[in-house]
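ok, trying the design again with the full structure, not the truncated one.
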């Protein structure tokens, strides 16, 4: 059959969900266009290590064209989607319009500042490579500035690092910032003494509140042992770049606020004009299609589905990948006139690392912590990285860091 006449499936987003959907359509009688604003797939779970000078950005990103080079029925286009026109079955992008017969929307999420304008202006998000590099530059610049600051209170504010959000990203970031700062004080900035403070703010009564309480407690103890001040039931109300203001009064003098307190679906999904659940995620049918549009599927962080217990499915990579696989299968089923299948999440468990030799893991009823959980975390993350070269380089960096207490990428590279 003439390839031009085959149904055109457009996948928007080359993240975890989009890539899996693309692979599931390999060799099928459809034309696939995969779109992303970036020309690479980003492994977000290791962004915090880029932010804390452990690894380089190119070790957690991989060109999409290289990943899908062998897939003959697929074209990749680098384009930013501005709007989705469902009536015309067309995506409006900065590179022109793209029509679809079926659309799999896998555009993920973006940082949510919950309408706190001063925080949006002055805090550092952690969602992209640019964000991670900005954090790394900023942390190192604070040390350089502190070394030249004669006033003790001003120096203390430069060396106070606040992380908001006690979920996995915030916990991992706070642990890594504490390790980085301890290392910097011992090696590059010995004159600074012990003025560094790392503060983790969590709005609820415990960190990692998706895990069982005993694991939350273990994680909190491990963070405190690294010198992190964990403050529970603390909400940020504002940040002017010098003071973190807390709800109910009180503030922390600090020039650094890393915002890991929330995300919402990527803004472009609003143009679907379809009902949304929490975090602006788009409500989908059990088979992942839109309630009133069987040609459009939404998956991953952008989609809202409940897991049976009335709770939304978590915004994690396994959900996105499993939904990517099913959305592709359901698109094909509908083209063949077969019934679509409902999504059922197979939860592989949760892991969070607190730093060197410390992590917590909950895999079904199995729970473990400490070195064993950390070893599992290392293996799982290494195996999921795309590209043999990336795996090898990250492994070498980790080993170097572990053996010599040395962070490899302590470079300040401001954007010009
Ligand atoms: C710091 C951090 C740490 C995390 N750690 C973990 C972890 O340890 N384990 C875990 O399971 N999950 C983790 N997650 C969550 C996980 O990364 C997400 O759940 C997962 O990436 C969702 O997959 P997705 O396909 O829905 O979206 P993504 O993987 O985010 O992909 C979305 C893609 O869409 C593209 N895109 C968005 N908007 C547009 C547009 N308008 N035009 C063109 N392209 C667009 C983006 O460039 C991106 O490539 C972490 C997330 C962060 C930010």
């Amino acid at each position: 059959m003439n390839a031009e006449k085959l149904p055109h499936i457009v996948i928007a987003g080359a993240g975890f969900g989009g890539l899996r959907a693309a692979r599931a359509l390999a060799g099928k009688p459809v034309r696939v266009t995969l779109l992303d604003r970036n020309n690479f797939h980003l492994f977000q779970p290791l962004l915090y290590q880029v932010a804390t000078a452990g690894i380089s950005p190119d070790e957690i990103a991989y060109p999409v064209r290289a990943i899908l080079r062998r897939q003959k029925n697929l074209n990749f286009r680098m384009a930013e989607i501005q709007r989705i026109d469902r009536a015309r079955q067309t995506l409006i992008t900065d590179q022109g319009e793209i029509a679809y017969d079926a659309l799999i929307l896998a555009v993920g999420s973006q940082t949510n500042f919950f309408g706190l304008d001063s925080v949006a202006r002055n805090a550092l998000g952690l969602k992209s490579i640019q964000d991670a590099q900005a954090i790394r530059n900023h942390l190192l610049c604070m040390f350089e500035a502190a070394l030249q600051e004669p006033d003790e209170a001003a120096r203390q504010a430069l060396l106070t690092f606040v992380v908001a959000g006690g979920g996995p990203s915030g916990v991992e970031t706070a642990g890594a910032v504490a390790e980085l700062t301890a290392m910097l004080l011992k090696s590059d900035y010995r004159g600074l003494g012990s003025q560094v403070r790392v503060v983790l703010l969590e709005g609820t009564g415990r960190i990692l509140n998706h895990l069982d309480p005993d694991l939350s407690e273990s994680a909190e103890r491990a963070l405190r042992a690294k010198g992190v001040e964990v403050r529970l039931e603390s909400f940020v109300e504002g940040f002017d770049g010098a003071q973190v203001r807390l709800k109910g009064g009180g503030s922390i003098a600090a020039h650094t606020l890393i915002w890991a307190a929330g995300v919402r679906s990527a803004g472009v999904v609003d143009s679907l004009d379809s009902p949304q659940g929490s975090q602006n995620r788009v409500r989908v049918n059990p088979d992942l299609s839109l309630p009133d549009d069987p040609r459009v599927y939404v998956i991953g962080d952008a989609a809202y589905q409940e897991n049976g217990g009335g709770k939304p499915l978590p915004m994690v990579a396994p959900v996105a990948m499993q939904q990517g696989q099913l959305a592709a299968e359901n698109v094909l089923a509908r083209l063949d006139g077969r019934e679509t299948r409902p999504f059922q999440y197979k939860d592989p468990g949760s892991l969070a690392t607190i730093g060197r030799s410390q992590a917590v893991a909950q895999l079904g009823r199995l729970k473990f912590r400490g070195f064993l959980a950390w070893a599992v975390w290392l293996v799982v993350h290494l195996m999921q990285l795309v590209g043999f070269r990336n795996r090898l380089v990250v492994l070498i960096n980790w080993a170097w860091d572990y053996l010599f207490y040395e962070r490899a990428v302590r470079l300040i590279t401001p954007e010009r």
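Keeping the full-length input from now on. Residues 180 and 360 are 20 Å apart (CA to CA).
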